[in-house]
Amino acid sequence: MSDHVDPATVIAATYGAYAIPGRRYPRTLPPELEPWYLYTGDGGHSILITLGGESEAVAVPVKAVLRAGWTLTAKGYVRCDLPYDPDRGLITDPDDDEYDDATSATDTTSATPLHRYAVGELYHPNRTHWPDGAFHWELSEQGASMVIFMAAPTDTEVIAVKKGAARFALLAGQHALILAHRFDPMPWSDAPWQVVRQTNATAGLPLIGADGRLRVTVFLVDANTGIIAAIRGTTWTARFVEAVRAAIRTQSLNHSTEAQGAAEINAWYQRYPTSDKLVAAADINTRG
Questions:
Q1: Is 66 helix (H, G, I), strand (E, B) or coil?
Q2: For 181-197, what is the mean pLDDT?
Q3: Which of 52, 77, 134, 232 could form a disulfide with 149 if both were Cys (CB 3.0 to 4.6 A apart)?
Q4: What does the buried/exposed string (b/e) look like for 148-169 if buried means 16 or more CB atoms within 10 Å of the residue's CB?
Q5: Prediction pTM value
């Protein structure tokens, strides 16, 4: 019908560069689902479905759709009744995830040995000095992590990172984002992040876990020695994850340059000269 949407157009508008071209599902899909198939680095083999409103499309594992069943809406969207929680987001069985061997999040075939992260060991095997007071975020399909570089951290600072109540806030733009963090009793701090500047890993985020949260790993590194002083696992809520994921996607769709991002970041810091003011203006915040 002429008023039907074009699946390829919808997929491109929704996932853009995150939809990896040239992939095929290893088995034959039903004709209604075939046009809505896509493959993403963090989601694997998926079908773009709607849970209700046709403007709210989301990619879900093919297995989940096949098991739950589906219908087509008047405009041709795939409608699938899968469990959804406003705070936890879409809930699927992790066993439904399917990846090509070359892009699986659990791929361990790399010839380069994995570096061991442990308290008392070097954060980087070949580096012993880092800029004091720097923060580094990595937002990739393999996970979310932050490194805090602090010269000779005190016992109080180590304990705060390890055990203090964790808070996070996001300020998102068209070409950059800023993530703020706090580990009580330490004050708020923040760090900018751009897709274009993350060259060691594909920008993105993994799927949310069955508990409705995404694990975030925090490292505290002594900037004077390069030795890890603390490692802390915390989490983001589904709502916060989706906000960060949307901000990453916006930068990718805009093909944002480093200069565009820097201009946006500078404008934010002129408007919000302290971390507290930036957090007050944040789009969303969450408790770890």
A1: helix
A2: 95
A3: 134
A4: bbbeebeeebbebbeebebbbb
A5: 0.61
